[in-house]
Amino acid sequence: MLQRIQIGLLFALPALLMGGLYAWGLTLPVPVLGRAYVLTMPLPDAEARLGLPEIAGPADVTRPLVVIDPGHGGPDPGASGESYREKTVVLGLARALRDRLVEEGGIRVAMTRDDDTLIILEERAEIARALGADLFISIHADSAGEQQGVEGASIYTLSETASSEAAARFAERENSADIVNGVDLSGNDAAVNAILVELSQRRTLEGSSEFAALIEREGEGVLRFHPQARRSAALAVLRAPDMPAVLYEAGFISNPEEARALASAEGKEQFAEVLARAIRVFFARQSNSG
Question: Which CATH number fits domain 49-289: 3.30.530.20, 3.30.1490.110, 3.80.10.10, 3.40.630.40?
Answer without folding.
Answer: 3.40.630.40
